[in-house]
Amino acid sequence: MPSFFKHASNFSLNQPVMSNIEGDVHVAHHWISDQVPAIRNWLNPPDSSVNFNAALETRTPGTGQGLLSNPEYLKWKNGGETHMLWIQGKVGSGKTVLSTTIIDDLNQTPKPGLVYFYYFDNRDNSGSKSNYRGFLLSILFQMAISQDNLVHPALHKLYTTCKKGSMQASLTQLENTFALVAKTAIQLDYIVLDAVDECTHASQVMQLLDSYQESFCVAVTSRYPANSQSCLNIQLDEIEADLSIFLNTRLGKQNWTPSLHKEVQKALLKGAQGQFRWVDCQLTILEKCIGAKAIRKVLSKLPRDLEETYMQALERIANGEQKDDAYHLLLWLTYAFEPLSIKQVEDIVTVDLEKQSFDPLDRPGDLTHMLYNIIDSALVIIGPDNIVQLAHNSVKECLISSHNLGLSSGLLEFNEKLANEVIAETCIIYLAHIPVDSVFHWIQFPLIFYSARYWHAHLRNIHFKSMNQRTKDQVIDKLLDDKKPYIESWITFCKPEMHWSKAKLATQLYYAAAAGLTHDVHQLLQSGYDVHAQGGRYGNALQAAVVGGYEPVVHVLLEHGAEVNAPGGEYGTALCAAAFWGHCNVIGVLLDHGADINAQCGHYANALYAAALKGHQGVVHYLLDRGAHIDARGGECETPLCAAAFKGYRDIVHDLLEHGADANLQCGHYASALYAAASEGHQGVVHELLEHGADANARGGEYEIPLCAAAVLGHGEIVHDLLEHEADANAQGSERFITPLYLAATEGYEDAVLDLLAHGAHVNTQCREYGTALDAATLWGHGGVILALLEYGADGDGTQSAEHGNRFSREAAERLKNEINGEQELDTDLSSSAVKHLSKEIIGLEIGNPYKHLVNNSSGSSESPSSI
């Protein structure tokens, strides 16, 4: 039975969020008081507060005053005509610290606006801090979570739409939610972006922010000039005053003579060329010198720029006793797929590549001392949360630049191919030396998860012919040998098998295919492995290779006789797996080798259904062109059209309809594509379906009709679209004869209530034992809905259900009165006029309520609902 009273357990009369968008009054429902941790885990936004706090700790008091007093900055800060402030400065000029200074200044200045910020950071090899999505996730989360730890209703709705975190939100969904949150702001807020030049999609970031000039004042730092002429510009050319403050502070901590102090300051200011980073690197070296003679020797050989500074640091490494460890670690920090902790770094340098061994007893003791003893601090730092990272993005740029591929200093060659080989080999050795029966692997061996997840990814980045023989042998002899325990370590911690057990261990061939190792697959087949062998999560080696999108492996397996239509595995067939993961090239290979395009695939029905369900528009097109049946049945949603509608993929819905999909085909649990889209809140899909002839009154589904589903779930725009396409405003859903108006009133969705009333919904319809819409609204204290219903003629004294009706009106009025006068018991039954009076009284107290202007004035007149 449907639950028609979802808010019954958390009744509240909180202040609504108000906004006026394009002339229409919109009421966003109450900020949600729970689920912040769940939403944070779901979005997983990059945490820029780490960068902020790190920069704040390095900021020298007194610096940045030149910027804060700059007329352009003050004009921007005070909300001038230009909303964008662009601060340009060369590499190492202190832009990150200046961004932090701006944020700190805005937070300490009395003003109505809020401050949001983001630090782009290329040093994070996961890419989350250098792409558009990471920026959007972080800013949206900051905006949509209040200082009281409440969730904006737009973000909560997105969370609900995405099955409470079981699905990842698309970029379009995130942008739409950002728009809703931005438009409900009641003041001009600030966004500060640092190092936008390190963003891989900087144009998308700027395009988004340009669309909200009325909502935000935006400050940007970059090494490059602004593309737009419509922004305020500040060039960081003259920063000698800040450099002097910085130098005086650092040098003041040294027990040097005044003359030596001046000598050092003069030399560093002369060579700085406006770069704090260069000065900081030289000071780090000078502070280690013993005596004036050593200091003057360093001053006499100061590097000309940052690049030369880093080259000198690399030369010091090359001349050190642990140059191999340092070199390998630099390769890891530059090319690893994830940030590395100090504990992981400890195990990286403990792995002995020459002896092919790893012994935990060989770990160094003092981790910090160990790190800075083998690598110059000009290159590497230990950041917040004990994350080891390159000291600055310019270090990474220097290391990977083409003219640094070969170093005459004796340091080994530095390039991506060698890095992938070193990292892969380190991971394999590490996994091969982990005891499989240990319970606390992840505590005792902190590098194990990285090793298990990524060793094969690093190997795939190397051309097999260029791989050294030692690495080739290790893959077959160690990790892929199903007669040895090493493969168990990999599977256990990589989890390519969701429910792995020793009894279900697949073949060596299967895991080589799952890892995308073409040469190893070929070698194993040549040695006699059965290409048809069953086992593993994906059933066989072919499906395992298809899931990863490893086209060369798929070719090898098919050439050795793999059955292209073999049933089994998680996706039923290899073709369905390829469609689910969007591997269009692999789909072509499979079809060219005789794959049945319409084969049934169990849970995912067929290839077209799987592609539609996952939103792969290109795959949908390709499958249709190759002859896929457009209305083939199967799967939870029954048809490809219903699957795409349920997920909200409007473009795919459009394509399927244009190719002849039946818009009114029944879809089992979801009744129809229209019902699925309406219940999930996908307005664009609803519009597309209605324009292609979907029946707005088709029956089926939990709430029986699309209009009831949209009304109870708060999709006001969809309610309007359905009504405009002749949906019956008085249709009754379910065996309890609940109307759309009653459901919207129960949940407090004022916009839907007004739309239904304007389209002829009967205001006094009895919903069996549940009473009328007015009973529901008054019971749950939805003040705006109460008044809207009364203004449309709702009868508070009408015939009520014996089971619930009179109690509804009495209890509701008592709640409303208690909100005003405190806990007072009512002595008599309340008439319609009493309910009406108390309703208006409590509504009049709601700050910013859009129906406040409807409360009777002294002459007893009121505006009509049509004027809203």
Descriptive account of the structure:
48% of the residues lie in helices and 5% in strands. The chain has 868 residues and is mainly alpha-helical. Among the domains are: 153 residues, Alpha Horseshoe (Serine Threonine Protein Phosphatase 5, Tetratricopeptide repeat); 205 residues, P-loop containing nucleotide triphosphate hydrolases (Rossmann fold); 63 residues; 173 residues, no CATH class.
Defining traits:
single chain; 868 residues; Serine Threonine Protein Phosphatase 5, Tetratricopeptide repeat; Rossmann fold; five-stranded parallel beta sheet; three-stranded antiparallel beta sheet; disordered N terminus
Summary of the model, kept short:
The protein has 868 residues and is mainly α.
Can you lay out the helices and strands and say which pair or pack?
Blueprint: E1 17-21, E2 24-28, H1 36-43, H2 49-58, H3 65-68, H4 71-77, E3 84-88, H5 95-108, E4 115-119, H6 132-144, H7 153-161, H8 171-183, E5 189-194, H9 202-210, E6 216-222, E7 232-235, H10 240-251, H11 258-272, H12 276-286, H13 292-299, H14 306-318, H15 323-335, E8 340-341, H16 342-350, H17 367-374, E9 380-382, E10 387-390, H18 393-400, H19 416-432, H20 441-444, H21 448-460, H22 469-479, H23 486-494, H24 508-514, H25 518-526, H26 541-548, H27 551-559, H28 574-581, H29 584-592, H30 607-614, H31 617-625, H32 640-647, H33 650-658, H34 673-680, H35 683-691, H36 706-712, H37 716-724, H38 740-747, H39 750-758, H40 773-779, H41 783-791, H42 805-821, H43 832-845
Parallel strand pairs: 3-6, 3-7, 4-5, 5-6
Antiparallel strand pairs: 1-2, 8-10, 9-10
Organism: Rhodocollybia butyracea
ANK repeats: 537-569, 570-602, 603-635, 636-668, 669-701, 736-768
Domain Nephrocystin 3-like N-terminal: 62-223
